[in-house]
Predict the 3D structure of the following.
Amino acid sequence: MKNKIAIILTLQFIITVFVFSGCGESTASSNSSKLTYCAYYEDAICDIIKRYNKYCTKHYDESYQIEIVEFESQEEMKLKMSTEIMAGEGPDIFSLSQKLPFEKLTDSKTIADVNELISEFSYDIGIDNCDSKIMDAGVIDGKRYFIPLFYSPDVFITTEETLNKYNLTSSEFSFKALSEKLSKNKKEYSLFGSADDNIAFFYSFLDQYIDFNSGNTEFNSDKFSEDLDSIYSLIKNDTTDENVYYFLYENINNGASILYKEMPAFSIIVKTYSCLKYLGSTPVFVNNYNMDDDSISASIDVGIAVNDNCKNKEKLLPFIKYCLSCDVQKNMSEECMYLPVNSDAMEKCIDSIDEAIDFGDLIVSDKEKAIVETAQSAAIRDYKYIINNITKCNLYGFNYLSDTYFNSSVISDIVDKYLNGDISKEKFIRQLSAATEIYLTE
Amino acid sequence: MRKSKLTRKQKEHIAAYLFILPSFLGIAVFYIVPYIICFVKSLYVGNTFVGIQNYIQLFQNNTFLLALKNTGIFTVTAIPLLMVISFLIALFLNSFKKISSFFRSALLIPVVVPIASLVCVWQLVFDDYGAINGLLNSLGFNTVEFFNSEWSMVMIVFIYVWKYCGFCVILFTAGIANVSQSLYESARLDGAKAHQLVTKITIPMIAPTTFFVFLMELIYSFKIFREVFALFGDYPNTNVYFLQNFINNNYYNLNYPRLSAASIVLSLFIIIVLFIFFCFERKHSYS
């Protein structure tokens, strides 16, 4: 009898050990009062957090600091975060560059409404100093779920000379016209100088026809069907060589690539413009594909959201205020090459363009310097016009479009099959519509 | 020497409970507690208690209703079809006992072959340029898009019947073999015809087997998600979007309130179906 009881107790012990030994490293802070953020590489938010932690030691106390929980890979991070969120925990801050289904997280109220937090703790985070058109991208059904920090207009740089080769001008540019001209030319070309940009461009085209908030799609419209032919043709006939490193200036100047997606910071744009002008070209902006032909859109490059499971929400507001403050926005904009959402920071960035640009040995004469100065003022004028006329802002940046949850997990297989020619256009539209509608409504 | 105050019976009870305890702990930790947590989660959105709001929203959700409809259609179509076909094959094999062992073994092959291998074969068979469409085209018919039309459901039902038929045949054959031959002989003496032997003796006498087969097939019908997932991915066309797809996708989408509510509804659905069948079986079983 005693032996039996001993065996049973041993078994019980083994089961108990197995049951409770499954808990690995948590995304919660090792110091429970600290806020947490998950990252698998040093992104812009990690940079801000490091600055903020130093700032906290001077202005607040250490409990306001944010701990960065590091992971080896994106998949590992996502798996851990998902498990923690399911258990009603998880990191306190999300980044829009993390591959999470944000449309669904807002549905399930996993993300907190920042406006609600502001009124609950009577704390001003400085949203009024920011560009409202960009900030409104984070508002869904009247609730501010996302806080954009940096953004970029959806425009590409090209030159009039490149467009003239295809009998096009920047004022009459359209992707449909470009596609027709390229099809007639039957010459080799590279659209962006990068196959990854081609895919991002295709996803940006598809995402235009989806309203993630209302759950409606327009994949069955004639416009989509018509424009899909043009975009498909542009990408399908592209002959970008992955083994070739494409230089922006040389290629655009030589016509080896047609468009270029440049980093959006004012200093970078002005530098590119000036260099192109210096090399004898006429740089111009063309809009990314847009459903409403004349409108200019933008997209959020860096943005954050707050986990509703956060136990110290009042400590998050000073961090958001810090992120949106003029100095941080200006400094980070210059370092990360994005456009700041803070209006004062934007003005300061424009004012300091002269300091930011170092042409090195490029300028050799006063004449050439004059050319560059003219180009600078043209760039500032053109870019300001674009920024001032942005009509809408998307939640995901162009460079991250292939990596968003929807694009990478829901429609990537269908898109790959279509772009590889495995399925017909009609089948592609049917499968795309079905998958999107199910994802948006389930 | 100190005497134990417990009686022999009490000691036996304690020993019995201790024997049950490991299993009970396992079931409690892995099934009962998660089920309770799942139910509690289904009453919350974020950190806010919403009562049955998630359930109401679930039944207002068109995608959930679509999944429910497809699962219902599949269960109602595939299970009876499989049972009828396997019962008929079992009857047939029972009449030819010399070759029945070979066929029984052959019919079991689909059950043991790994899903991944089967999926490759089905893709070759049902693809737009696959074997079936090749045959149809050669006979002058148009190509049938098995992977992207209402035919997808037919394909899944066919795959299900093909895969599990052998297993059911074995069970039915065993059930039929256990029916006493004297019953058939008495019936024949009374002038019963072949179809009467089947309907009046075989079917009632193998009711427990039929119940067991139904139970197993109900469980397997929910496992068909593996094949659907392997063939169509996370987001199949609307004709083969099942409840398991809905639950699986909501898991990946981190929509836990909806996932929990759907899981509870699905479990209740299974419990109710099984309860009805248990009652039916108890009432009608000859044994």
